[in-house]
């Protein structure tokens, strides 16, 4: 049987419709992958922003600590648990006082902070801090 093309009859063949559908489906698949990738990156950026905010909060809390008197500690900032340890970097030196009344000495300390979040994930950072003691 031969199909005759009648004048004025328009349309697509089944093959043309299937090819067009396959192209559309492939395009949708690619767009879905890009969308999912964008969502994942947004989630990771939010987590990183939260960690950096917690680091700033922890650093601010530790600025109030005298590492010469307290060598280690722990706490919670923005829902993230942390612990820290202080090690002396430079020996204690007297504070210059032209009148000679100060008996305090300053030392430079390194504080290593370990943050724990999520399921056994850790993040570390270091900061420098002055510690003081009163000379005998």
Biggest β-sheet strands, sense, barrel: 4 strands, antiparallel
What structural class results from the helix and strand content? alpha+beta
Computed over alpha carbons, the radius of gyration is 33 Å
Number of helices: 1
Can you describe what's shown?
This protein is α+β, with helices and mostly antiparallel strands and 136 residues long. Helices cover 36% and strands 36% of the residues. The protein has one domain (14-134). The chain has a four-stranded antiparallel beta sheet. The mean pLDDT is 90.
Short description:
The chain is of the alpha+beta class. It is 36% helix and 36% strand.
Task: Name the features.
136 residues; rod-shaped; alpha+beta; four-stranded antiparallel sheet
SSE blueprint and pairings:
Elements: H1 14-62, E1 72-77, E2 80-94, E3 104-117, E4 121-134
Antiparallel strand pairs: 1-2, 2-3, 3-4
